[in-house]
Amino acid sequence: MCIKRCAGLILAFYLSFIFQTGQVWSQENPELLNSFIDIDEEGSREVESWMENLWELMQHPIDLNNAKVKDLTQIPFLDHNLAEQIINFRSRHHQFSSLKDLLMVPGMSEEIFEAITPFLHVRQSEHPPRLIYRFQSRLEKPNRKGYISGEYHHPLYIQHRILFIVNPQLKGGFTWEKDAGEEKMFDYGSMYLQYQHPTQMFSLLVGDYYRKVGMGLVLWSPYGQPISLQSPLSRFTIAGDSRGNQSTHESGFLRGLSLEYPFGTRVDFDCFFSRRNLDGSLSPDRQFILSLDQSGLHRTENEKRKIDQVSSTVWGISIHSRSAVLSTQTALVIFHFQPSFRDILPPMRYFTQTVQVQAGRLKSIGEFALFTEKFPAIQHHITYSEGKAQFQISGFYYHPKYFAPSSRAFGSFQAPVSNGIGSAGILLFHLNRVVKLGSSFYIRRKIYDSHGDPFVLRDYAFDISFKNDLHWIYIQWKLKFREGEFNQIPNERGIHALRTDYRFPKDKSFSLHSRLELHWDKDYLSFARNTGISFFQQINWTFLSWHFTFRWTSFEVPEYDLRIYEYENDLPGNFRSVLLNGRGYKYFLLIRWAKFTRFQIDFKYSQRLYPDQQSISSGLNEIPSNRAQDFRLSFIMKY
Length: 639
Description:
It is built from 8 helices and 32 strands. Helix content is 12%, strand content 49%. It is mainly beta and 639 residues long.
């Protein structure tokens, strides 16, 4: 009774606050993108890599009744302990008759169930395709200024992908791509081949692959995410294997070979090697690396001068042991860059230890990494579930001299681990079957700042989710504190965001989606207030073999600090995040035709209009018009 009264008071407070302010915000595509929050342009390529891996899993879903633990842990949000619970449940109750049977597995929540079911199947009537070919292309009109001046070439973007399965033990993939503005029609290529022995269960991967060590303080993989109110809290898990590179993201992956060998069912030994060239900027005397280039774009002369300037060699070994309660991973990773980074003598050595404890409803997982036996990086997460409530608390410490270019800091898709200390927390409460409340905080500051006292970055968020068979409503309020300046005096700037998202599936063939988002700030020195707003209406309609999605957006954002990111439907395996700044309108039409199960065509047309501007963007990327049109085409063939 006390819990119900407290929950009622919390809900009443949230509703009263919402009705008093009268403003709203949203979240896009909760079925797949609900784990992303505040993704900026710098992180979007990491998200594309994440999406490509999910796309391949959806093309070759895992057979739930024949899967092993190693197979299930390929799915994000599914850790090793829960995968073992699924296998044990199947052993006790024979085979699964439907995916909904997963809800009876101990430790399975509705959030995790919704996240993993797109990548599983039970007694599929036809075999997954042996070969998948996907072609994608994009063209923007009018041409950017760089194309016209001759600094860029060929504005057409082209991508080819092939995925194949020879048999259950052998699979692989090829990718090749040309970015818009690049001169060569074959600028980037990637391939991998993976073999898994049917009885010994060792796995050998040759080619381009991702390898995550521990929780990502040294090496990162496409899977992982920043703090989010909508993602499953069990997403933190010890890395289990290497994955072939299926994306067009030209950095972050290794090139060589990876061997995984199990000793029984509780211990895995992994070793890997990589050697490849990277894009980077060198000092004038070419003796030191100034920075590694992550964009993969080779359009301007400056970008071309960075091609393959750096040689990277990586060796690594790890031992992963696990029991019903305790899992550990110990790893040693050695990097060698030629030339070297300034003030860092080669080789760069990393020792990392990850420990996970699962005791009933309590899960504790943390990683300790040590760089050149001197500089540590630490992060730890504790998750607890009790009835309708779930709680997570996280903390991290990154030494100012800790340096790992392939790492990922907690709370970000893109930023590497560097100079910081902070904490975060998430609280979720299921009021009943259809209503869920959530709140979170994220605090970070530099340990050392040469410019004076380090600024404390803070994020606070509250949300309400209502979902039944016909309606889905999501409301979130967020407050972010960032560094600001007034009359050349540093100050603290508080930026508010309030969003609401409403979806109404009238029937299986027709649905509506509306979103209204408001950003505003209060400058505490000038007492000025700025407000940015965006609104869109989307219609989804399916008729026979055709599917149509149309969205229209109106926005008015007075300055860049109040920018709004809008996530929209895109071609298969892609993520589209559009930055809204200034005053304008935007719309897109996405048409999909899938007459047969083994052939699919997607076409997307979009347009952005800025009535108050003469051109869009600036510099080499300037579009000499206030209107930009984007054409995208994809077709998929399966055999």
